[in-house]
Amino acid sequence: MLKEILSITGKPGLYKLVSNGKNMLIVESLIDGKRIPAYTKDKAVSLGDIAIFTDTEEMPLGQVLENIKAKENGAKCSIDPKADNDQLKKYMGEVLPEYDRDRVYPSDIRKLISWYNLLTQVGMVDFLAKEEAEVDTKADKETDLHDKLKKEAKAVNVPKDIKQPKQQTKVSNPASQRSTNSRKMG
Does the structure show a pLDDT above 90 at 164? Predict the structure, then answer.
């Protein structure tokens, strides 16, 4: 679900991808439902591609949103996105204790909280269900492909006692080659 939700630099709120046009995307605002074009000059980022820095690795945004949902029992955030920096850091520490305090800024936390509130307001609360199903399906397809290739490799094995035809080499006719020596006219 998060792959279709976009954040566009310079435009408030979040947008749902509706269609692709020539050199633009057609997006629909989650706030008011208006459709607008997002051109190639606009920086549009899918929420599915965003991750939060932690002390060990990067955590996908969907997992962080699920942590907020679990803390808030599916309701809107109990903290205001406009709260002071210390309150925001404390809240983020409760949601994601291992977040990197040096690389995750209060402005990032504000944006995260406002995105969560907006998504819950419009009823988009399944942040991971579809993505995990896609990953499982992809892994199953890769396993099936690997097994199929193994079977095909066994079927193609040629016994060693059958002689393979020799490769023919191309022989050039020396008489047809022109001499590269220069001739004197005279």
Answer: no
Residue for token digits 């809107």?
A: 76
Tokens matching residue 159: 């016994």
pLDDT of residue 145: 52
Q: Which two tokens stand for residue 33?
A: 């439902």
d(CA 156, CA 142): 21
Model confidence at 170, in pLDDT bands (50, 70, 90)? low
pTM of the model: 0.67
Packing angle, helices 106-121 and 85-95, rounded to 10? 60
Whether residue 132 has pLDDT greater than 50? no
Residue 172 confidence (pLDDT): 53
Nearest to 100 by CA among 113, 89, 111: 89
User: Residues for the chain: how many in total?
Assistant: 186
Residue with tokens 């998060």: 2
